[in-house]
Structures are given as structure tokens and as C-alpha cells.
Amino acid sequence: MSETNPAATAPVTADAAPHRYTAAMAAEIEARWQDFWDAEGTYAAPNPKGDLAGDPELVARPKKFIMDMFPYPSGAGLHVGHPLGYIATDVFARFQRMTGHNVLHTLGFDAFGLPAEQYAVQTGTHPRASTEANMKNMVSQLRRLGLGHDKRRSFATIDPEYYKWTQWIFLQIFNSWYDDEAKRARPISELVAQFDSGERAVPGGGTWSALTEAERADLLGEYRLAYASDAPVNWCPGLGTVLANEEVTADGRSERGNFPVFKSKLRQWNMRITAYADRLLDDLDQLDWPEAIKLQQRNWIGRSEGARVDFPVDGERITVFTTRPDTLFGATYMVLAPEHPLVEKFTPAAWPEGTRDAWTGGHATPTEAVAAYRAQAASKSDVERQAEAKDKTGVFIGAYATNPVNGEQVPVFVADYVLMGYGTGAIMAVPAGDQRDFEFARAFELPIRCIVEPTDGRGTDPSTWESAFASYDAKIMNSSNGEVSLDGLGVVEAKERITEWLERTGAGVGTVNFRLRDWLFSRQRYWGEPFPIVYDEDGIAHPLPASMLPLELPEVEDYSPRTFDPDDADTKPETPLSRNEDWVHVTLDLGDGRGPRRYRRETNTMPNWAGSCWYELRYLDPHNSEQLVDPEIEQYWMGPREGLPHGGVDLYVGGAEHAVLHLLYARFWSKVLFDLGHVSSAEPFHKLFNQGMIQAYVYRDGRGIAVPAAEVEERDGAYFHGGEKVSRLLGKMGKSLKNAVTPDEICAEYGADTLRLYEMAMGPLDVSRPWDTRAVVGQFRLLQRLWRNVVDENTGRLSVADVAETDVDADTLRALHKAIDGVRQDLEGMRFNTAIAKVTELNNHLTKVGGPVPRPVAERLVLLVAPLAPHVAEELWRKLGHTASVVHEDFPVADPAYVVDETVTCVVQIKGKVKARLEVSPSVSEEDLEKAALADEKVVAALGGAGIRKVIVRAPKLVNIVPA
């Protein structure tokens, strides 16, 4: 650290009190100390090795890795709600440094994304130019807050040297498969060796050597963790791109833009996240996350136990998953989702003889009926398809399947209430036990067979029922085939017996199913990471060698994907990259021994989630061009240790809205990298904290249009804008709502330290709270009183008393050490609002006592404030004569002798009413406390000579007297 003293260069402010703490002084102090911290590398966290290696003493300390969720550099800049989490992690990081930790705290930018691309489409500005300008502005705004980030470690996902490794990770996932027996990912080369040696049989017989290159590629694609497939996707014509399930709203529209979304079949890249469903679920138990977030992930993964059952169809089969195999004898028809690939396979050219008119939808052939119904279903959202409407729709596909438990031929329908996104996309319909099946069966005149004995008195004849009956407590009936009988059994026992029979006969197998679907990983966009994949003349995908990474985005004239009529479901994507012929078609030597060949590049890009799946690792070793991360460095910062069985970041702070998107995806990537031996941490984030939201009042005129909040006047409890009465409602803060307050405004009026204190003092960090600019001044006054307790406002000199701690009065020492004890506990528990309250209480005590503040008290007060208001603390620390930065000073430790109260107040009640209060020792015995209470003059007077039936003593705080 430098021996220079920037405090010495502070100017004198022309004022009635020339050295009073003002906004102008705060601005000067803050800018000067920010420059000092940057110049001195105050927040540099040393690695154990490499180009960021540093002070061995710091490396030897316990480490803390503290992270904020990746910010996106918006063109609108920051409002005061955005920095809430950043200030909180900064306060916590500063406290950890002062309690003896080597702290890694930095911030980068998640800079790929749709907003920059949309801006480019509108203005012709390259997305990189607008994004870099936005980042520059955001860096400036954040710097003004005094955040203690290690700036050597910052980066943006759009940096080629960053997305080189995003592409490299994609290739690791592409070149791996999940071994269900070993329960981990393994290199795809090991799977090839198993096929080649015969250790693993080639499906359909034959040998690996006899397969063509295309056949090998198709077979490996069934195993790869990253694979391309023709599958039903969420196609949004209005955006011109495909969306992941998580990007579609509950009413079937795009989360961004609110356009209709349709089901369409396209060839897209996917991540086989479903292979990790069990581990993603089980490992949640070891994470220190909010239970609400864990529950969301558990529900999204959606684990359910049951059986897979095969229903034969003309030598083929339809496989269903059911959680109730005990009801198989009640299955009287089957339903396939409209998108199911078997629909076309099993749909004949003509209707079978005897097909009912109600089943055909009025079409001459099954092919016509199915095509028309599929078109109808594609226009509905998943929510609409599953709505509990009474009118069920569907058509018979012209085929029958065999129920394996009784040999019955059951008709196969296609209906939109069955989705491909759950189970196998096919169901066995048991209308007696499922309300949707019941309604469908009634609409299409299908049999309903009672197989669970009703317990509500309705009887066993379904023709008399008004609804289905389902129960886990009833007995099974009408379920016997001569080989197995479930009659009279309870549900649990019946499920076990039928599953055993299914497995013994080869008709099915007990299994676990998940709601989680594979992650759709393709976007029809320009502004994203290019896939490191090329295709040969046969359409076979080949990975680029690592030496060709990064594959950088080419320049294009038109940034926009082709968009279509939002309601036209029959359109197909056209990507911006596909229009760059020179980039798309290339001659490359992939180093596979075949020499230069002609290839076609993948023209989709990765989704914006890709870059944030691993960014915690780049913070550790940001300049490494040879490895994803040095293993020793990764082990140091993120490796497993006591209390962190899976390793990970020590504290991760961000919004709860990312529960099933970013957090789930990042966990998946971490587990793949862990399995392949690239990292020691199987989880990315050990402790998660979700901060609340800073809200603001939205004012709307009679048309419902938001008006500028700053121009609204309050009169007699009502609100007016330009003389017109307006409504007020608490909501989000934002530019479009005309209620945004920027941190720049508050910093200009009060200083960054005041803004930091106000945001931390507003309430518990995990609770949303309303912004009130008028209340900010309270924290500004706290800093003014703090300044006044250390510095003479007229001379600028210290006003503290240079005395020993033994000369400080007992009351002040008690106030000091109680504050130290409370603030330390509060900062450790991230209870910043109560920590500030305790600092305020101590500061007010010193103001009330008057006179020069004793140096031992003043120094500790400054140290208590340092994590919360670092600029003023740094300034006062130097004025107190210290040459080293306050950032790495030791946080005060309380003397237990002063923390315990000398006396406590004991309440004395008679008949439940308070009659006296006694000041007693905290260690007073019940016997002595009773004697003192009964001897008190007020108690004696209140009793008036009456006898005492009972005295209840709860030392040291309560005595309750019951008169006779």
C-alpha cells in the first residue's frame, strides 16, 4: 500500500462551517478515494499462482468468493433499484476482508442478448458498439458507488477470449455422453470404443465397423449430451426465433414481445439436461439456498415414480409412462400428442371398417383428419390445451393398440390435452379415474370401466357417474387376467404387483419420470455465440478443433432474423448468419487426417444463457488462454471443503426470477465439467441469497398513462399532476413508468456513502421496499454527525481526545462494545439495516455525551462504518493518523465484559397490571428478586395490606404477584 495521504489534498469548502460534511465534500472525498483504490489495487484478490498471484499472507487466509448475478448492460442505465444487491455484496465483502479473509469480489457483463440486436435492427448500430457504450456507462455509474471490485478480473461475454471457452465447453458437452451405470458423463470416445469392441451391442444388430459414417453419427447422437434433432419446438414468428419452454409465458406467448408461440418441428440443438435430473434434484439438499427456490427447482424437475408400459401396434409399440400402473385394466383407449412422431407412422390411408362417425372429425381419411387436427392444435398454447374445459377435442388416427394386461384392442386418438413435454407424449386413458379422460370418453362414446372401488357411495356403474373417481385409499377391482390379480389390493401393493408382472412378461418396466425436458439450445439470432460446428456434404456434424477457437461472429449487413406475421404458424426461421455466404461455406482442415474439405457452418447461435453458465470460473483465472481454469486456482476458490460438500461460490446474490433458468442451466454445466475432470466443484453456487426489490410509486392520469413522479404534488391525501388528479400505486421502478430515480442524482445531492447507507437501511435485504427520496436525508445526517464527532467543522482538525481506553467512561464503553458485538453479528448475517441502526445508536450516544470523543472510541466507530460507508471511513481513518487503507484493517472485537448489561429492568405486576419497575442485576436469583419486589414502596402501596396467594418469578425480568 502507498504511504501517500490523499486526505491531505482535500479542499476547504466555503461555508459557514468550512469543514462541514456536505454533498460537495462527499463528492470530492469519494472521487479521490476511488482513484486511490484503483491506483493501489486495494481490492486485488491474489491467486495462489499464475499472473494474479500476490501477497502470500493474503493467500494463506481463509478465502471468500462473493458474487453478484451477471448484469446486462442496458442502454437505459441504472436506476436506484439496480445497485441494491451490488451494494449489499460490497458491504459483506468489505466486512469479510476486515475479519481476515482473502476476498474475491468482482463484476463482469452478460453482454449477448436480444435488446442490443433489436437496437441494431432499428438503428443500424453494430450490437458490439451499443453494448460497449452501455457497459462504459454502467461501469462509470457503479464506480461512483465505491464498489470494491477486483477490476483485473472483469470481462464481458462478448469478448472473443471469453466465448472461446464457452464454445470449448460446448464441445466438451458435445463430445460426451451420460453413463447411466456410472452416473456421470464420460468422453464419447469411450462409448465408441465400447461399440467397436462389442462390449456394448449396436442397436439392431451388426457391428460398429459395418456402419456408415452417417449411421455412426446418428447412433452417437442418441447418446451425446449436446445433440441436434428434429423435434417439436416453440416457434415464434413475430420474433423470428425458437424459444425455450422457460421463455414462453403461461398463456402461450413470448416472454419478450408478447407474440403468439406455436408448436413446430425444426432441427435444433439441445442439451441433454434430463440425464442429470436425479443429481440436480438430490444435490439441492446440500445447498444453502432459500427453500422457495429449491421448491421451484424440484417442481420444475418434477420427479415421479411409476412404470413404462408398451402397447403393441402392428408389430410396433406405443410406450406410455404412468404413475398408476395399477389402473391398467381400466385403460379403454390411448391418446397421442399431436406432435408425437408415431402419429404419422400409425395413421393408415383409410378408415378401418366400423369406425364411428364421431371419431373421424368429418374427414374422408385418417390422414386428412390428423393433418387438420394438428394444424388446429398448433395454434393453442400448452396452457390452453390443458385447460379444464368440458369440450374435449380429438380424432381417431385409424389404428388400434393392444392393452398388454387383457389383450383388448383399444383405439388410438390424437388429442391436444396430451403434451409431448411430459412423459412419452402418449397416455393410456383410464376414464374412470381421470376427469379429462372421463370427459373425452363421454364425448367420443368410449367405454368407462370401474377399476377402483368408489368410497363415496356412487356405486360401481360408471354410466351413472357425473365425474371420474380417483383415490389412493380405495381397493382395486375388475383387474385380473388369470396370470395376475389386483382385486382387493390397496393401491401401493397393487402397483408393486402389476409392475413385477410387467417386468416379468416384458410388457413394461418400473421407472422414474421427470417433468424436466431437454434444454433447447438454438437461437435464430445474430448476437450470440456461434456454434463451433460444421457440416459436411452428407449433413454430418463435425466439431471444430480447439485450435480454431474462438469462432468469431462475422460482420453482417442485416442483423435481424426474418420475422413473419405473428399469427402465421406455417413459417420457418431464417437466421442473419445464413445470409453471409462467405462465412457459411468454408474449406477447412479439421485435423482428422482427411485434409481440407468443404463444410457448411451452423447458422444458429447459442442462447443468451450460455455465457452465464460458467462465468464464475472465468473470474478465478480471467487471463488464462491455455485452460478453462487452472485446477489449483479453481480448487483454491471453489473446491469442496467443510460445510460445502459440492464446493461452489461462497455467496451468490441475485433475483429470485432466475430459479429455473440460469440457476438450473449453470448447475448442469458444472456437473458435466466436474464429471469430465475439468473442475473440482460439482455445484457452481453453494449459498444463494435473493435480494428484494426497490419499488416506487407509479402515478397515472385518467387515461391510465404514467406521469412523471417527480412532478406530482400531494394535497390533502390526494395526488395531482398539472392540476389533474392522478392515481398512485406501488410498483416497479423504471423509465417507462416515469418513476425512475438514478443513483447519479442521489450521489450528486448527498454522496455515494449516503446512497449506500439508505439502500441498506431501508429494511431487510430480502424484502421489497418502497423508495422515498425524502427519507435519504436521514442517512446523510448520520454521516454529518459522524464527521462532526471526529473532525472540527471550523478548523478541519481532529476533535478527538487522545486518552487511553481506561480513561473512557463506563457508559460509553458499554455503548461501544454493544455496538461492536451487534454490528459484527448483523454484518455476518447480512442484516445491514439493523447494523446501521446500531451504528446510529452509538453515534447518537457520543453526540449526546458531548465533548471530544475518546480516540479508542472514535477509531472503532470508523471501523464499524467502513464496510457500509467506505469513502468517509477511509477519509476519517487517515485524519486519525493512519497511513494504511481502512479496507484491510481488523474489524473491532467486543469485550464480553461490556456487552452484558450491568442492570436490566424487571417488571412487577399485580393481577396482571404493571405496578413497578426495578433495576436489577442480570444474574439476580429468583429469591432475591422476589424479596426486592415485595419490598418496593409502590408494590406495598398497591397491595394495601392484602395477603399474597402466589408469587411467580421469571428472573431477571418479571415478577407477577397474585393477591389472596
Short description:
The protein is of the alpha+beta class and 964 residues long. It is built from 30 helices and 31 strands.
Q: Could you walk me through the main structural features you see in this protein, from its secondary elements to its overall organization?
A:
The chain is of the alpha+beta class and 964 residues long. Among the domains are: 21-167 and 610-690, 3-Layer(aba) Sandwich (Rossmann fold), CATH 3.40.50; 303-514, Valyl/Leucyl/Isoleucyl-tRNA synthetase, editing domain (Isoleucyl-tRNA Synthetase, domain 2, Alpha-Beta Complex), CATH 3.90.740.10; 902-963, Ubiquitin-like (UB roll), CATH 3.10.20. The protein has 30 helices and 31 strands. The strands form 8 sheets. Strands 22, 23, 24, 25, 26 and 27 form a 6-stranded mixed beta sheet that branches. Strands 2-1-20-21 form a 4-stranded parallel beta sheet, sandwiched between helices. Strands 6-5-7-15 form a 4-stranded antiparallel beta sheet. A hairpin with a 5-residue loop joins strand 22 (694-700) and strand 23. Mean pLDDT is 93; it is low at 1-14.
CATH topology of one domain: Rossmann fold
The CATH homologous superfamily of one domain: HUPs
What does the overall shape look like? globular
List low-pLDDT spans: 1-14
Query: What's the alpha carbon Rg, rounded to whole Å?
Result: 35 Å
User: How far is the N terminus from the C terminus?
Assistant: 75 Å
**Largest sheet composition:** 6 strands, mixed
Record field, number of beta strands = 31
How many helical elements?
Answer: 30
Quickly give the CATH architecture of one domain. 3-Layer(aba) Sandwich
Q: Strand fraction band?
A: 15-25%
Structural class: alpha+beta
Chain-averaged pLDDT: 93
CATH class of one domain: Alpha Beta
Helix content: 25-40%
